[in-house]
Design goal:
By secondary structure, this protein is an all-alpha fold. Helix 14 packs parallel to helix 16. The radius of gyration is 20 Å and the shape is globular. The mean pLDDT is 93.
Length: 346
Amino acid sequence: MYGKAFAPEYQGALTTLSVNASLVDVLAAGTEELRAAERAGRHAEAARSGLAVAEAHRRLGQVREADRAWKASYRAARSAGDTAAMAWALWSGGTLARQRGALALARRLLALAAELGERGGDVVVRGYSLAGLAETGRIQGDYEAVGRLHEQLLAEARRRGEARHTVWALEGIAQMHRNSGAYDTAYALFEEAAEIAARADDRRGHAWALRGLADIVSVRDGDTERALALLSEAEETCRAMNLVSALAYNLKMRGNVLYRAGRYAQARGLYERALAGFRGMDEPRGEALARLGLVKSRARLGRDRAETAAELAELARALERIGLRHAREMVARAEQELGVAAETAR
């Protein structure tokens, strides 16, 4: 049995904030509490409210502000001698590092966060940090190494009845099955995640689950209109909560759906919008995926083969630098699909 979803990253005076609160509202409330805590010299409260500020900035795509905020939260927590708050700040910093494509840094910060969380007796931050490590491995395509961790975290979340964390784990496992071609299994897991998120009023988790369902409906069933309808429903949540990153990924997925349907000009426009969004928030993984869709769309619309081959080769090098194995395999498949593999190899 799952309870109502909550946001453990909203702490101290901000615990009353809903998991579904607009990020703009979270940022305003967090900044107000942070300033009050700093004026009063309350380091522990400054660390807790600073965490919400960091996370709001990160999810709004404001990378520099998020980087300053999580570091300030960590310093305040250290001054207060609050080990658990230090762990939460490091979790935020590790999550930001992953978003920016600094995967080695993300692993270091998240591993330290998990260690401090255990030392500080905060099982939630420990779980979130281990989840961050699992997600970092998953987006790199290292499914064998992190699959068991995902399953372990799912079991722990189910046991504690934590809806939001259960939804996260289900979606991560579903994505690995989807990328491995097990579409029916992936669909069932995304569907369970959507149902749990809806009952727990976890709108962010529900939006991500709908995106996953739309992907499966498109690639497995070829049902373009249903996939687009699911993405439209998810988009409403993204806009209501100011989920900038999720909105960009939604646009990218809408491009994927239209590309599969042969509607290349429409897909190109969506990839362009998604690319602009990812670049605006310094998110290299999303940027690379949107670029890949854009290259493929332009190729289908008559772009010069040599230009296509050159951009795919450059994109492959960029993905190698980031360390995204699965995405690199997607580029190789695109080269084969577009008939430019031999030209790229020369």
